[in-house]
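Before a colleague's protein record goes any further, I have to sign it off. Thanks in advance; the entry in question is below:
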Amino acid sequence: MSKSQKSPVTIKTIASEMGLSFSTVAKALNEDPLIKEETRARVQEKAAEMGYFPNVMARSLRNNSTKNIALIFNDIENPSLAHIFGRITKEMGGHGYSTLICDSQYDTAVEAHNISTVLSRKPEAVIISPVTSDPARLRLLKNMADRVIVLGDTLDGFQSNYVHVDYVLGGYISAKEMIENGHTSNMVITEPEYCPTCRQFIQGVEKAYREYGLSLDREMIYYCPPSIENGRQYVMEQYGKGGSFTGVITLCDALAYGVYKAAAMLGLTIPSDISVIGFDDYALSSFAMPPLTTVCLPTERIAERCAEILNTKLKGDSESTQIFSIEPHLVQRKSILKQYKE
């Protein structure tokens, strides 16, 4: 081994350096109360000085507890999801758990890789927002399904814990708000078509259209990963085609911001020329110009329910699976123009 390559510092190395037994050093590093406080302090100081870091994974496997929780989401840049995993990380961190966070980016192959990666870390629980509604995608998690929490939709054939968000209601609320304000010709910009939340959302939009005796033009539905750029691109594309629409229904506030950007580039104003409704209710949406009308995703309640399930599962208080259902609600602001019939 070259001089530039240092051997790893081990408990044996520290014991040799201090002239103590391996057992004494190991106990001191593990805060064993049988070791004198003065000795514990000296050992821990020497360990820090020598650059010793305990092998947490090996210790966890010996104790049959890794104290790890994995979160696998589709878009970690989404402020609503960021709030959820931030809240869960803080809550479970208070109980000594670390959190692994993975971003599947709406890609089934990336999701499969993420699942394999987190399983190699032996997590004690997994929270996942699935890319597709195909339960076979989650087959890798079947051996720990009782400690998996699925966000969004419930999946037939996968018995697990669920925090279900009623995206059908969300789509219905969005379309109804547009229709009741006189906007019957709308673009819809949503997540990729294979996503379970997208499927529900479109069902809700179609339900509202049916109730008003209207037909949703499926040629006006655009499927894409949510982003400001995609929202801008599809509005610009529809205008380039000479599309006739007065409103845009989106499944993400970021997509709605893209509508704002497209309107500015086209020399149009919101809501006079284009009305738009978002979904999620990002913290900044009330500061948009004009403030964005949106459907609120109750992130705090979602995080609370996830933490509740985790606490009962990890403490061993419940072996049965748990299902919670959460409803989104409308937040009316200034991005939809009321059109009056003549």
Q: What stands out?
A: DSSP finds eleven helices and twelve strands in the chain. The domain at 65-165+299-327 is CATH 3.40.50.2300 (Rossmann fold).
